[in-house]
Structure formats: structure tokens, C-alpha cells
Design brief:
Elements (H helix, E strand, L loop, with lengths): L13 H17 L3 H19 L3 H22 L6 E5 L2 E4 H27 L2 H7 L4 H31 L8 H32 L16 H22 L5 E2 L5 E2 L4 H11 L1 H19 L1
Antiparallel strand pairs: 1-2, 3-4
Helix pairs in contact: 1-4, 1-8, 2-3, 2-4, 2-9, 3-4, 5-6, 6-7, 8-9
Length: about 290
């Protein structure tokens, strides 16, 4: 059994999951405060390890690479700030530019990690259920989510087929690699168009009706309601603290925390920790029930 099958949070009500991920995405990109973005990255990585185990090491390596590249890029090309590290001719390299680059890389990494978790937790059935008030939009969105891994696998098949036709010889020049990439993309677009036509004809032949009444296996429990209310409360409270200037962090021209709300910080960390906490609570319940037997 894979770890994803044992994840309790992914089995909860779709409304809770959509509410949680939307709030996490918005908080991660809108707070402009590294003190709040760092927990989003840390708890996202922890939850990633819970879901994927050692396979999450690749995600951690990618995270470190993104932070390094973004921070280095900002450090080289941005020259604001007052804390001079060194100077080459007339070009100043400051600590503030390096710090802001690390912050940008952390924010981008956190967003990508949570988006990856979102794509693994949310399937087409949940999308159709949440957006059942707009069935056509729900169908398109669910199909897009399904096409992404499907097209990635198909692109790999196209590359392998091309390598087979070339006797396994890899492209030796940039021009040849670019030409091969264009040919692979052209083949993938042709496949996607043919696949969309086949899917459309198949749905029409089977009598697809977006307004038909559908059975749903999801039921909102008390725990779903409580956690959804908690998620919305944390989001509203933290955004209010942001708008009212209670969690202001200055990174130019100096780095300092102008205002800080410890309550907003604790609640934000609790929100990012929520999926892990749900899984840990379920694991504790399971072990207690096993001991009673």
C-alpha cells in the first residue's frame, strides 16, 4: 500500500481540501514576510515526506536548487540595500539583495510544493463535486488535471520512439536538440488534438449530460466543518493582520521586522501543519485502538 493511500487528510471532504489549499496558496504569496513563508516551506516538505517517503528527497533537492538560483540571480542583478558585502568596480553587492532573493526562492519553492501536494490530493471526482454548480467548467478543469500527467508520459514515449529511430543516438548540438524538441512538441500537439476529438466523440456517444443528477459519496462531517471553519478563521485573521500592518517586514533598504503579531504567526503555523496533524492524530487513534485489542 502506498503512502498516499494511508493519508487521512486526502480522504476528507473536498470542500475542506479546496478551502485549505486556496488559503495556503494565497497566504504563501501575499504576506511578503519571510517569517511566515518559511513555515509554509518547512511544513510543506514535512507533509511531502509523509506522502512520498524517500521519493520526496528529489523535491527537497529541487527546493534547494530553486532557492540557490533565485537568490544568486537577485544578488547579482539587484543592488539595493545598505549592508555592503563587497564591491566590484561600481557594482555593489548587498546583503539585502541576497536576503530578498532567498525569500523569493523560499516563497516560490513553498508554492510549488503545495501545488504538487494539491495535484496529488485532488482528483477529477473531487473537482466535479466542488464545482457541480458549474458542471462544464468542472469537467474542463478535471480533464486538464488528468491531461498533465498523461501528456508528460506521452511526451516521454515520443522521445523514446525518436531515440529508437535514431539508433539510440543523442543529439550532439544545440541546433539538433532544438529541432528534436520542436518535432516532439509537434507530435504531442497532434496527439492531444486527436485525443480531444476521440474523447468528445466518446462522451457524445455515451450520452454525456452535464446537468444530469449524480451520486456523491462525500458527506460533510463535524470534523470537516470544524477544520473548514478553522481554516477560514486563520486566513481571515492573518490577512487582516497583514492589511492592518501588524505583520510588516521591511527588506529594503534595511532588514528588520517593523511589526509582529505572535497570534498570527502561531495560527499560520497551525494552518500549514494541519494536514500533518490530521495524519498524526489518525495514527495515534489507530495505535490506541490496536492496544485495546
Amino acid at each position: 500500500m502506498c503512502r498516499q493511500d494511508m493519508d487521512r487528510f486526502s480522504k476528507m471532504h473536498p470542500v475542506l481540501e479546496f478551502t485549505f489549499f486556496i488559503c495556503v496558496f494565497l497566504l504563501s504569496v501575499s504576506l511578503s514576510n519571510p517569517v511566515f513563508v518559511l513555515p509554509a516551506l518547512v511544513f510543506g516538505v514535512i507533509y511531502e515526506f509523509i506522502l512520498r517517503g524517500r521519493e520526496a528527497l528529489s523535491c527537497l533537492k529541487l527546493t534547494l536548487a530553486i532557492i540557490f538560483v533565485v537568490s544568486l540571480f537577485n544578488f547579482i542583478f539587484a543592488h539595493y540595500g545598505v549592508t555592503l558585502l563587497f564591491q566590484i568596480k561600481d557594482t555593489r553587492f548587498t546583503f539585502e539583495a541576497l536576503f530578498y532573493g532567498i525569500y523569493q526562492g523560499t516563497m516560490l519553492s513553498a508554492t510549488l510544493i503545495w501545488f504538487g501536494i494539491f495535484s496529488r490530493n485532488i482528483d477529477s471526482e473531487k473537482v466535479i463535486y466542488v464545482f457541480r454548480f458549474a458542471p462544464k467548467c468542472a469537467l474542463i478543469f478535471s480533464m486538464v488535471l488528468g491531461f498533465i500527467p498523461r501528456f508528460n508520459a506521452k511526451l516521454e514515449d515520443i522521445r523514446n520512439a525518436r531515440l529508437g529511430l535514431n539508433g539510440g543516438r543523442m543529439a550532439s548540438s544545440k541546433k539538433e536538440r532544438f529541432k528534436n524538441g520542436i518535432n516532439d512538441l509537434s507530435a504531442l500537439i497532434t496527439y492531444s488534438l486527436e485525443s480531444s476529438i476521440i474523447t468528445s466523440d466518446s462522451m457524445q456517444a455515451r450520452g454525456y449530460n452535464p446537468h444530469a443528477v449524480r451520486y456523491s459519496r462525500y458527506k460533510m462531517t463535524a470534523s470537516d466543518i470544524i477544520l473548514t471553519a478553522f481554516t477560514l478563521f486563520v486566513f481571515i485573521y492573518v490577512m487582516y493582520a497583514k492589511i492592518s500592518g501588524r505583520i510588516t517586514f521591511v527588506m529594503n533598504p534595511e532588514i528588520y521586522s517593523k511589526t509582529f503579531d505572535i497570534s498570527a504567526m502561531v495560527l499560520c503555523c497551525a494552518l500549514f501543519f494541519l494536514p500533518t496533524a490530521v495524519d498524526l492524530f489518525e495514527e495515534i487513534k489507530w495505535k490506541i485502538s490496536a492496544l485495546k485489542k
